[in-house]
Amino acid sequence: MYIELKNINKSYGGFKASDNVNFEIEKGRLVALLGPSGSGKTTILRMIAGLEKPDSGEIVIDGKVVNDIPASERGIGFVFQSYALFRYMTVFDNIAFGLKVRKQSKAEIKARVTELIKLIGLEGFEKRYPSQLSGGQRQRVAFARALAPSPQVLLLDEPFAAIDAKVRQELRRWLKDMIHHLGVTGIFVTHDQDEAIEVSDEIIVTNKGRVEQTGTPIDIYRSPTTAFTSAFFGVTSELADYKSFKSFDEVDEYDKAIVRPEFVKITKKNEVQKYKSSAVEGVVRDVQFRGSSIEITVDCNNSTFSARRGLDEPAVEIGEAVDVFIYRIFITRGDSVRLLTNNAVREETVVI
Description:
352 residues; alpha+beta; Rossmann fold; CATH 2.40.50.140; 2 domains; six-stranded mixed sheet; five-stranded antiparallel sheet; 24% helix; 32% strand; globular
């Protein structure tokens, strides 16, 4: 493994920001640290960078313990949320800054900066100042400046937070392609699940200073291993009493029953419903257009939760009585989670 965190602990006064954190990252992977505010993800990033020192445990990069190695000597590039570009420097000089500090020759600096400007797609912008660039362009310059000294690790703290939605999507794809093209190991902090799913090769879910789960985006989404991950990942709602929905096995003791929109099928009363005998009646509370689908909020058996319908399906109206069938749910008890599949589905595969 290229990066390893072993039994890392970090406290600020009485607040434990990292609680026995352990994980490994392969070289050349782009990994998301995903979690709610205060979950410890930024602290982890700053400790890897050398901007914070763990109270205990080891940080290993390329087989070497780096706890006592200064940030400037770790071979790490860092991209901040706020870009942190020098306002009175041109694009060229911003990218060249780290190379000048290292006292590289003018020829080397020019060659490296020219290469990076081409990589980020800003040829012809060399003499512009940050104020003359769009938000997306400024962020690309920040990426290039961090990459200029040829780091083997690139750390990014909420890199897309200050950029509008359309540009953010473009930069996500660009960043993933760039990381894989360069072979750099990338770690980025985010609280945006869509961003983590779209960009990363692997996700590390954090909560209250602990690592809840690590895995590929699809593995974590489909197979949460803790109660927190099952409720945090995806759009979730809690059922008041899952036993009031037909055809599920009964669990004697549980804390929560969690459902996602893709686990629910909403049909109009006059529509054919494959599992109609196992459906229950609900009432539509809200209808929202979500671009590629219609999101339906439904009141059913003393619970309120969401489902989706296709744009080509007959419209449902607020206040309309509908049939509700739940394919599956997550049942939590303590820190554990269990997936229950509706018995009416039997051995059939539900594609989500």
